[in-house]
Amino acid sequence: MQSAGGSADQRRPLFGGAMSAVVPHSATDVSDLREIPDNQEVFAHAHTDQSLIVELVEFQAQVADEDAARYHFEDIAGTNKALEPGAFEVNGVVAVSASELCLSECNTAWMLTGTQCVSKFNEQARNTVTLHLGLLRLPQFSTDVLITFNDPQSISPDSSSASALGTHKQPWTVLDFQHLLRTLTLHNPGLFG
């Protein structure tokens, strides 16, 4: 299978090989640069300010499946200090058919698209970011798997991210995000304890 970058897809081991997925071209493993929590795999595009995060979080049993993606999106908005009115918006949520996924253990899956106005590194400058969120629910493991694609749309000139402007070489697309989500595979259920 060919990726958007034109090279053959290669699965990348995640969480010490307990999972794997096809990660898009130009991906830098952020754990090579700084410490990342054990429940996350974070990839940054080598030439843009885009990032992809695969995160294992506690299954939210009190949240209905159809509301869970929005719940996690709002939780991320809180972490990003983007909860004030107008700072975040959900543009759409769609269910993903289990037949489209490699993760056969998944109970239900959802994709959400929204925007958040966020700052990096506690800066005052705020950037508008399109956030694509994939949610794979695994109640049998008490786990929700979040896949987040941060795709900056407008970057403040005062942001540390402004230096990435104008260098967009083959940016990732929503198709790259969807391919990662669909190819995510579990190899060792011991990952969940």
TrEMBL record:
Q: Which Pfam families match?
A: Mog1
Q: Does the keyword Protein transport apply?
A: yes
- What keywords are annotated for this sequence in UniProt? Guanine-nucleotide releasing factor, Protein transport, Transport
Q: Which SUPFAM superfamilies match?
A: Mog1p/PsbP-like (SSF55724)
Q: Which GO BP terms, alphabetically?
A: heart contraction; protein import into nucleus; regulation of membrane depolarization
Molecular function via GO: guanyl-nucleotide exchange factor activity; small GTPase binding; sodium channel regulator activity; transmembrane transporter binding
Mention any one GO cellular component term assigned to this protein in its UniProt record: nucleus
Q: Which residues cross the membrane?
A: none
Q: Does the keyword Transport apply?
A: yes
Q: Which family does this protein fall into?
A: Belongs to the MOG1 family.
Q: What is this protein called?
A: Ran guanine nucleotide release factor
Q: Which organism is it from?
A: Betta splendens
Name the gene that codes for it.
rangrf
